Each structure stands twice: as structure tokens, then as C-alpha cells.
Amino acid sequence: GAALRLEKVERHYGDGESRLSILTGASLVLSPGEVVALVAPSGAGKSTLLHIAGLLDKPDSGEVYIGGREAGSLTDAERTEMRRLHIGFVYQFHHLLPEFTALENVMMPQLIRGLDRKEAAARAEQLLAYMRLGERVKHRPSELSGGEQQRVAIARAVANAPHVLLADEPTGNLDPKTSRYVFEALTALVRASDVAALIVTHNMDLASKMDRRITLSGGKIVEV
Ligand code: ADP
Ligand code: ADP
């Protein structure tokens, strides 16, 4: 089944004369293992869409399904749980915890979920090896390059084997060569873990390498 499904999602801000319709019936299906680029100009509604897909914001109408489960009927506690277990986030800046090593940062989501330390460490090591950071597990974020920090953040985002990975310009502050390397590692990890990735990017070189490209036009999602 679909990892993520948005069905006729609408989102409006304000009301009356100042009412702003950002999403006007946005529909999208992402399959496991798929990497999809979201490319659209500033103000088009990319963040709004990512927040709704990530259960950080609610649509005014329409439905959001994560791994087949409709999110609209969940309680706040269930939404938080769903987000924690089934959705991974990566941002332009990594937000790694500075006082912890790469390994500990990747273990964190699993420990919060209640996994025991040994299991969490084993999975974190595996993910970091996958991101070609096997030699960096004991390093703190400040001891890693920008590209390495982002690869740790990506490993952390998929640590709980989520259905969906939502990335907001994950290579936005990296040089082109590093961006490509980080993107290739992300793609390999997404395919291996059957996560569906939705990646906001302005990097057309990377977008051209993804499975599909979508944009927002008049508040609806269209393939480009
Ligand atoms: P993008 O990420 O594509 O730049 P956003 O989703 O951030 O677009 O914003 C789309 C539009 O919605 C913008 O015009 C923005 O000013 C407006 N907007 C976003 N969030 C809010 C909000 N909480 N209240 C009012 N307007 C908002
Ligand atoms: P930096 O940000 O310092 O360039 P990266 O995070 O991009 O570092 O890379 C970290 C490690 O990955 C380094 O050992 C680097 O040599 C290697 N690396 C970077 N880009 C590539 C690439 N395109 N192909 C193979 N190895 C790479």
C-alpha cells in the first residue's frame, strides 16, 4: 500500500478579505522506496504541505494517510505517537545534539521509543555504516563536516524505520559535490529501508535524479 497519501487536502490562512488559499485540493500518493522531489517557488505552499504530511499541522479539509492509517481521526497523543514512529524529518540545518556522538544521536529516537540500548546501538551502527560513516560513529557533530552532519541527521530520521521521510532542503547549505554525495547516500538508505521520501529542493541537478518531480500550482499538486 501507499506510504503516504494526501487526498484533496485544503489549507487556508486567515478569513474574509485576507483569506489566503494555500492548498486547494492537493492529492499525492507516495510508494515505499520512492524518492520524490517537490520543486516550487517560495510561497507556493511547500512548508505547509510538509507540515500537513508530517502531522505538524491539520488540513482544513481532505485526508492524510500514513502507512494506510487515516490521521484525521487520531487524538493528539496518537498523532504524536504516529509522528514519532512513522515519520522522519530532515531539515537544512541538522539539529543534532552537540553533546552526543553520531552513534548516540542516531540511537536517540529508538531510545525514546523504548528500545533497549544494545538493540538501538546495533541499528544505529548499521545505519551509519550505510551512510558511509562507519569511521565517524564516536565523533560529535562539531567534529564532522557539513556533509557528514547531514548524513547523521538522515540516519537519525530513518532510525525508527518510518513510512515517510520528509526533507526540507536537506542539502541546502552544502556545496554541489557534497550535495550530490549526501543525496546518493539518502537515496540508497531510502531504497534499503522502504521509506518513501518527499524532498523539497531547489537543486535541479538533484531533482532530475529523483524518481518523480512534483510542484504546487494554484494549491494543487502536479507532476512536472
Ligand atoms: P513555501 O514553503 O513554498 O515558501 P509556505 O507553505 O511557507 O510556502 O507558505 C505559503 C503561503 O502561506 C505564504 O504566502 C505564507 O506567507 C503563508 N503562510 C504560511 N503559514 C502561514 C500562517 N501560519 N498564517 C498565515 N499565512 C501563512
Ligand atoms: P566534506 O563536507 O568535508 O566534503 P563529505 O561529508 O562530503 O565531506 O564527505 C565525507 C567523506 O566522504 C570523505 O571521506 C570524502 O572523501 C567522502 N566523499 C565525499 N564525496 C564523495 C564522493 N563523491 N565519492 C566518494 N567519496 C566521497
UniProtKB/TrEMBL annotation:
Its EC number is 3.6.3.-. It holds the Pfam family ABC_tran. InterPro entries: AAA+_ATPase, ABC_transporter-like_ATP-bd, ABC_transporter-like_CS, ABC_transpr_LolD-like, MacB-like_ATP-bd, P-loop_NTPase. The keyword DNA-binding does not apply. PROSITE patterns: ABC_TRANSPORTER_1, ABC_TRANSPORTER_2. SUPFAM superfamilies: P-loop containing nucleoside triphosphate hydrolases. GO terms for biological process: lipoprotein localization to outer membrane; protein localization to outer membrane. Residues 4-224 form the ABC transporter domain. Belongs to the ABC transporter superfamily. Macrolide exporter (TC 3.A.1.122) family. This is Lipoprotein-releasing system ATP-binding protein. It comes from Prosthecomicrobium pneumaticum.
